[in-house]
What we know:
By secondary structure, chain A is an all-alpha fold. Chain A is built from eleven helices and no strands.
Amino acid sequence: MSNLTEGFAAAFRLLFGFDADLWEIIILSLEVNFAAVVLSCLIGLPLGGALAVYRFRGRKAVIVLVNALMGLPPVVVGLLVYLVLSRSGPLGSLNILFTPGAMVIAQAILVTPIVTALTRQIIENLWQDYREQLTSLGSSRRRAIPTLLWDGRTAVLTAILAGFGRAAAEVGAVIIVGGNIAHHTRTMTTAIALETGRGNLALALGLGIVLVTLAILLNAAAWMVRERSMPETALIAANR
Amino acid sequence: MVRAIGAFLLAAAITASAPSLAETIRVASTTSTEASGLFDHLLPRFTAATGIRVRVIAVGTGQAIRLARRGDADVLLVHHRPSEEAFVREGYGLRRHPLMHNDFVIVGPASDPAGIRGSNDAIAAFRKIRGAKAMFLSRGDDSGTHRRERSLWRETGTAPSERSGWYREIGAGMGRTLNTAAAMPAYTLVDHGTWLSFGNRGPLRLLVEGDRRLRNPYGVIAVDPKRHPHVRAKAALRFVAWLVSAAGQRAIGSFRIGGRMLFHPAARPAGSRVAAE
């Protein structure tokens, strides 16, 4: 019980004491998570849209595969990325193992299936509703994808946030490919793992509370963007 | 396609925004050196003296050796002498330098169901734990500590199996093993440095220490550039040379927690030999 109260006290001290090390870790974590999510969106949004509107042989198998990959274990992804980026691996000459770049790649692999699968579901529902309308306007399937993505942006944003949550919460992949190097590849989650290992449970819990606080702030910001994208007048107009 | 390239540039930009890699070396080392805070104490001194930055990847000894074998580190700093000598013999490393030592201790619940408290005979203590079928938690992760624990069990005559019920393998680093041992509670083998700096001892107490079979020597080896031409051999050798120099050994000796020395410089008892090698 005392560990819990100490944890909250530690979180408070960390956040409001403006601990330089902590802010370095927070900024690196956010940079890596954002880059991974951006990379995943660049692949996952068009891919999810395409899976929703195109019909081809093996489509169902691809959808099942993408859905299954949402459950990829981070440790396995970390190990695969490690073996590929290792000096003795096929891409060893890039020399990006144990750098933030390697962590971005590993997290993007984890997040892309989530963004793809959820986007596919969202766009497929919209495509069923608007298909006739869009085709009667002369829109090709290809041109329908960006239109539908924009139309479903609220739901798509939720899909992206789900992906961000996966990136921000995982520790198994980044600790393998990043190495948890102080001042270089130490993120919120790997710092929590380290402090737990040191037996500093209150500090570890404090870092965890900071991480959850950041997640809440980020989701609140996304919510506000969403509200603003649908102004009151539009809502009234839509209800007339 | 253009977008994908853009994304990779973004990833690359993040990598590039890190400080210059020109004078940076990677050290594959053990959790005991990192978790105790030794590197936080040593590295600023080394960087101030040479301008070379050091990045430490702290894993178990077995994993650290595998990293170095694959060429993913420039320096290996671990604690399992037979594996270190094999690493050099097989052509992965240059010379092995004795660096420092501390000792392992046996910790366990304060109630001490096996009655080992105060003994300085590790083998007798392990026999008593087995005799009492008292819970013992093993690292089980192929680390230096795990390898030592297995060899101590072998010295008792028979190594316990996981099926024996009282002997459990956790497959975790030192810290997680201690956290779990504190919660069970169970006996376990731990290096003295990690024990002194560990913050969550709960019911665990130090019960056995002082057996010479519990001595825990650390060695340091630069990865051989003939095997892995990309390693930063020059900077790596400067790091090794500094560690075994008078300044480096003094820095190791000056690392204390609560007034206690955690790692004893190896150059002190065997000073002349190290210098001559």
